[in-house]
């Protein structure tokens, strides 16, 4: 058994996964904060403790995410596009399009039958197209992030949130609150606004089925259902909290391939790890 690690240093959360080639041995998640090197090591060490293994037992480590270059114990860095493609392919082998709704970015990624990236589109210019907008909307109305899901289940009708940037969209939220609109309907409107943006991004990437949705906001079933309704297609969503770990899992899978190549004296050709951001 070869143990490898994937560490995903995201803008909002940092995740780590230990993988043995067949299954996840351990996973950990923490808010990223501003000490990227330290938080990467923290989640890695939490995984080691959970799996009851030593750092020397880990054959290869690949870091991904926005802070990947700050992981000082990595063997290699890979883009989150590459890592998400491989992770989604492992969880759902028929995946051809991955929609990743992160805290600060949204990405639509087309992949081949092996999970390698064919094309992609990013929405990273404004928070109105990311999970951070939903979290900020919830906090403004006095709700925590974990209350978003239960809140949306009580909505009877959504209200339009059409602002093209987070500042304008927040103004709309304030206006709705001032006239007594129920918070659940405002949150539903925010979900539908985000969904509309995500589907447009997928169209720009020339998305094709199967569709797999990843990212922390997919913990809430309402988000996945809203995308299904817009696409009028079925979508895959990793079970439980795995939607947050897809990139870390993909990095650990790439690390398995690198470890195997190192053991045989091979090269990295064909593995698909990209060190520089696309």
Name the CATH class of the largest domain. Alpha Beta
Structural class: alpha/beta
The CATH topology of the largest domain turns out to be Nucleotidyltransferase, domain 5
Average pLDDT rating: 86
Helical amount:
25-40%
The biggest sheet, with number of strands, parallel, antiparallel or mixed sense and barrel status, is: 5 strands, mixed
Encode the helix/strand succession as letters. Answer: EEEHEEHEEEHHHHEHEH
What is the beta-strand fraction? 15-25%
Distance between the ends: 33 Å
Kindly give the count of domains: 2
List the keywords.
single chain; 278 residues; alpha/beta; Nucleotidyltransferase, domain 5; 5-stranded mixed beta sheet; disordered C terminus
């Amino acid at each position: 058994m070869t143990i490898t690690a994937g560490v995903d240093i995201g803008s909002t959360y940092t995740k780590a996964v230990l993988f043995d080639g067949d299954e996840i041995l351990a996973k950990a998640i923490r808010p990223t904060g501003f000490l990227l090197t330290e938080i990467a090591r923290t989640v890695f060490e939490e995984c080691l403790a959970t799996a009851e293994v030593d750092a020397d037992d880990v054959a290869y480590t690949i870091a991904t995410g926005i802070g990947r270059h700050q992981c000082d114990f990595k063997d290699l860095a890979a883009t989150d596009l590459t890592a998400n493609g491989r992770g989604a392919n492992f969880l759902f082998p028929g995946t051809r399009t991955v929609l990743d709704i992160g805290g600060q970015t949204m990405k639509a990624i087309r992949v081949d039958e092996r999970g390698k990236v064919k094309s992609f589109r990013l929405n990273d210019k404004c928070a109105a197209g990311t999970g951070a907008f939903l979290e900020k909307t919830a906090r403004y109305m006095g709700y925590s992030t974990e209350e978003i899901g239960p809140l949306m289940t009580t909505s009877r009708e959504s209200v339009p949130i059409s602002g093209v940037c987070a500042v304008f969209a927040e103004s709309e939220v304030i206006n709705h609150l001032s006239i007594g609109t129920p918070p659940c309907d405002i949150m539903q409107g925010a979900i539908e606004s985000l969904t509309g943006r995500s589907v447009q991004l997928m169209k720009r990437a020339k998305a094709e089925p199967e569709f797999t949705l990843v990212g922390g906001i997919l913990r809430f079933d309402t988000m996945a259902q809203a995308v299904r309704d817009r696409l009028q297609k079925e979508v895959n969503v990793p079970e439980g909290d795995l939607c947050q770990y897809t990139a870390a899992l993909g990095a650990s899978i790439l690390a398995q391939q690198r470890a195997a190549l190192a053991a045989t004296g091979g090269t990295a050709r064909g593995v698909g790890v990209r060190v520089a951001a696309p």
